[in-house]
Design brief:
Helix content is 55%, strand content 10%. By secondary structure, the chain is α+β, with helices and mostly antiparallel strands. The strands form two sheets. It has a six-stranded antiparallel beta sheet with strand order 1-7-4-9-3-2. Strands 6-5-8 form a three-stranded antiparallel beta sheet, with no helix packed on it.
Amino acid sequence: MSATYPPHGRLSPLQLDKLAAAQRSLRDGDFTEAIRSAEAVATQAPLALDAWHLWAVALAQAGRHEEACHGPFRQALELAPDNVYVLANFATALRHIGRLDEAVGLWRRAGAINPAFGQIWLDLGMTELDRSRFHEAGEAFQQAIKIMPDQSQAWHGLASALDRQGHATQAEEALRKAVACEQSQPVAWIHLGNLLRRRAHLEEALKCYARARSIGDETPELLDAQAGALLDAGRIEDAIATARRLTALFPRFAPGQQTLASMLWEYGSVQTHGGDPLACFADAVRSHPDDARLRFTYAGMLKQTGRGEAALEQATRLRANGDHPRLVQLVADTLETLGRSQEAAPLYRSLYRDVRTHEPAFLNAYVRHLLKAGEWALAATVAQESCAKDPRDQEAWAYLGTAWRLLGDPREFWLCDYERHVALVDIEPPGGYRDIPQFLEALEKALTPLHRASREPVQQSLRGGTQTAGNLFGRPEPAITDVESAICHTTERWLGSLRIDPAHPFLGRGHLPVRVKGAWSVKLFSTGHHVNHIHQHGWISSAFYVRLPPAMDRAGSDAGSIQFGQPPKELGLDLPPRRTIRPREGSLAVFPSFMWHGTVPFHDDHYRLSIACDMVGA
């Protein structure tokens, strides 16, 4: 926000000249001189608001936000507690140093004093987004839009707030307004394309990316988004060609290297470079040995693709140039996957002891280690800490349930009621179909062409099968549209039969209706299965069964069945499933997203075709 300095306090002509010189220095980018001159005037005239304010702004623009907030901004606010410029600029500096609650308070004070000052509401909205207060952010952006209806950034911010609340249609409308306000801004077209891609409106998304490319530079982010949309649209060769162009033009862009490696991993060795999906990534690391982020991302990719020793070698090279908590955790996690838990233990302990802010992702990794190490009581304690930090972290609840089970704690069954919280229900045939078999036949015809991969994606639960790319729901095929409606309706009907328990992480979120957060189809071949896993980004997860192999009809066999309550094999706990269900074609399995689930391998020449989706409250 630009600064205006109303007269406050008596200044001598010499001090006025010095303050004017400080303002000129600030405009010219000479922050050192601006700070020196403004500080001198403020020290000599302690009631001069304009001197304190200018000193604070100069410090902030020089990147010295902590100094600005602790000293001159605070003094300026004491001198003029209702000055909107002081309030707004102070809030901006507080946002820079992560003191978001204080920043919001100051912006709201400024907005109450001068509600017609649109920039205040825009900045407030951005800070509420930083705080993940999406409803409040949306209200602030709407206020900004009333004052500045042609402000692209306000429409863009409103779209982000709406999107994070699950209002995709309204978010798209807001992004189209942003594009209309700033036709020449590529970033708006890219973001609109990204939203359309997530909604499976792929041709429209590709048109947005093409428009962005026509009016701006070919950025790595744009090429990465375009490659992903081409993949989702089933244009595999074009997607890989775009990803290759991305990595050739921007070899140090780590997300692009991940994109290409993931595509080559999943879509077959015919397309690989030198027979190794990660070969291009490795070439980039060798060509840019000092790029720490590139090497770190490469190490993570090696770990995800089962090359733990190579990942550890890369991480060790990075540690030689200095440690960082994320790097130490990568080493610990990699040692854990290699079965070297004794070496991982001191790293996890030091991170837990020394790092002040424990993110749930680290806490969950530490709990995994503790479960494997037999320290079940401590695992439960750390898991509860993770749940408290983010009550919607599905992985944390899964580990807590496992720790309680190992400890013989009856709260396992409060958390995971394997009878009432899991159900297999039949859907009704959607309108226009004679019966379920006719609907399933149409659905199978729609899904089969979408399975273009030759193997499972990187770091997924799937083994011995393929998964469709991108978001399945939103595609134009009528049968896919119909199955989304049927799944949501059936899930809502089942939810209505459950009692609400505000203290429970699943039953306490009794939101109706539901909306789909993500959907995909899985095709399993003989011996194929899902390893035990959870769904981190859902509330309710589900599996709808389109086609099942004849092997599943054999009496007394669990082949192809879905099982619940058994932790992942790599934890080494040797616990059996709590419940196993044999699905039927046309049936829907629904369960909490934090509940461990997987499938039993089957042997058959016929495949097993299903649709999985995660849902949250609308």
